[in-house]
Amino acid sequence: MTKTKEVLKKNTMLIALAVVMVLFQVLISIAGKGSLFAPANITNLILQNSYVVILAVGMLMCILTGGNIDLSVGSIVALVGAIAGVMIVSNKMNVYLTILVCLVLGTLIGAWQGFWIAYVRIPAFIVTLAGMMLWRGVALIVLNGLTISPFPQEYLRYFSSFLPGDASNKGLILSVTLIVGAVLCAVYLAVQLIGRAKKLRKGYDVESQGMLWGRIVLICAVVMALSYLLGSNKGIPVVLILLGVIILAYSYYTQNTVPGRYLYAMGGNEKAAKLSGINTNRTLFFAYTNMGFLSAVAALVCIARFNSAAPSAGTNYEMDAIGACYIGGASAYGGTGTVSGAVIGAIFMGVLNNGMSILGIDANWQKVVKGIVLLAAVVFDVVSKKHSSKS
Question: Is residue 25 domain-resident?
Answer without folding.
Answer: no
